[in-house]
Each structure stands twice: as structure tokens, then as C-alpha cells.
Amino acid sequence: MAKAIRIEENPPFPNHPLPVLYYPNALDELLEKSDPAEAVLAFFSDNGYSNGWVNGIYDYHHFHSNTHEVLGCIAGRSTVQLGGPDKDEYPFSKGDVILLPAGVAHKLTDSTDDFKIVGAYPNGMEPDMQRGEASNYDTVQKRAYDTLVPATDPVTKFKGPVQKYWDL
Fold first, then answer.
1. Residue 18: which of 146, 140, 120 has the closest Cα?
2. What's the pLDDT score for residue 19?
3. Which of 66, 115, 121, 139 has the fewest CB atoms within 10 Å, measured from its CB?
4. Buried b (16+ CB within 10 A) or exposed e, 91-128
5. Residue 140 near residue 80, CB atoms below 8 Å
6. Model pLDDT, residue 100
């Protein structure tokens, strides 16, 4: 169902010891609804991930040190670089979901014109925006690494990849 992707620390991007979770085609049924964005927002919210939004992914390296982030692709396709400069790039297409642990840098490197995602955060957290410019890297890294594992998985809720890969 989901693939775990390990991203190594890459200062000034802390990344995280927890893996990125990639769920291919996890949203396919929801995208058949009359309003796919609202359907995915409601799906994530029902699974404990709220404070959602609909947009794209920034085309610069960034991360959130205070919360994990779920991204669901509702249209088009893209390539996303994970981990900061000179790190691997991954395809992200309509129906796919990515769960990023706090501290994992991500950047849009390419996309179709119709690319659109829904994003949300465990327990409706308000994300901070970090670009790897913090002069207090150790503090930012500790905050990211200390971010609590969510109680639920954004796709399967109570029994899924979060419980399998993140339940340390």
C-alpha cells in the first residue's frame, strides 16, 4: 500500500529519522466526486488531519519544524525533490498521497499546468515556514525530531503505515 522513503539529514535541512510515506493512488475514488478538493479535505479531516488548504507546492526548498504535513494530489502530476538540494526527486501524480515528517525539506521541481494538491496537518496544527536559513539549526532540528507521531494515519486512520513505520 504505502512505500517508506528514508531521507537523510542534510543541514541546513534537518529532515527526519521517520520515513516519508508515499501512498500511490490512495485518493482515486475520492477524485470521482463532484468536488474532489472538498472530498479530500473532508477525508483528511475525518482521519485527524485538518487546517487544510488547496494549492500547489512551493518551488523552493522548505519544511515545517513544528508539524508533519500530508499532501494529496487532486489534479495533474509533478516531480518533488525531498531532502534539500542535490537530493532525490520523486513523481507525485493525481490520486497519490505523501506524508512528510516534520523537518523534511520539499520543493516542486516540475509539474503539469493543472497540478493541484490538498494539504493538511495532524490535529489542525499551524505550520511554521522554514527555508533552511535558521541560525539556530540545532533548535529547529530538535523541534522537528520531537514532533509527536500522530495518533492516526491520513489514509487508513487507525491501522496503517503511520502505525507500521512511525510507531517507534
1. 146
2. 98
3. 139
4. ebebbbbbbbbbbbbbbbeebeeebbbbbbbbeebebe
5. no
6. 98
Strand partners, 98: 22, 71
74: left (phi over 0), alpha (psi -120 to 50) or beta: alpha
Helices (H), 28-116: 36-46
Q: Tell me which H or E stretch contains 89.
A: strand 89-93
Q: Cell numbers of 113, please? A: 499546468
Domain containing 51 — which CATH number? 2.60.120.10
Q: Calculate the CA 48 to chain-centre distance.
A: 14
In a domain, 164, yes or no: no
80 lies in which domain range?
3-151
Report the C-alpha gap between 41 and 64 in whole angstroms.
Answer: 20
